[in-house]
Amino acid sequence: MIPSPPSDVSAILRRIRKIELVTRGLVRETIGGEYHSSFKGQGIDFDDFREYQPGDEVRSIDWNVTARQGAPFIKKFSEERELTVYLAVDVSASGAFGSKDSSKREMAAEVAALLAFSAIKNQDKVGLVLFGGGVDLYLPPRKGSRHILRIVREILTCQPKDPGTDLTPALKLLVSAAPRRALVFMLSDFIAEDYENALKIAAIKHDLVALQVQDPAETALPNLGGRHLYADAESGERILFPTGSSSARTAYAEAAAKWQTDLESTLRRHAIDHVRLRTGEDYTPALHAFFRGRSSRPV
Question: CA-CA distances (angstroms) from residue 159 to 28, 105, 139, 143, 176?
Answer without folding.
Answer: 32, 12, 16, 25, 24
